[in-house]
Amino acid sequence: MTARHAGDAEPGARLVVVGSLLFAVGIVGVLLVVVPFLLGRDDAPLWTTLLASLLPVGLGLSLLGLLRGARRRRS
Length: 75
Fold this sequence. Notes:
Layout: H1 13-38, H2 46-52, H3 54-74
Helix pairs in contact: 1-2, 1-3
């Protein structure tokens, strides 16, 4: 085992943080898409759909960061 400094981050930690933020923005986008349909509107603006597409991107980045950290700790 090597000693780590306080400023050193785990491998993949930045990916997890960025992915979590994108996931949260994607959840807001999903709400912005779903709520108008529940209120009786037939269409949603394109920007809300694009915002909602950040949810799976954020999930993927977070999982990739977790896998990188796990592989580094294992070896």
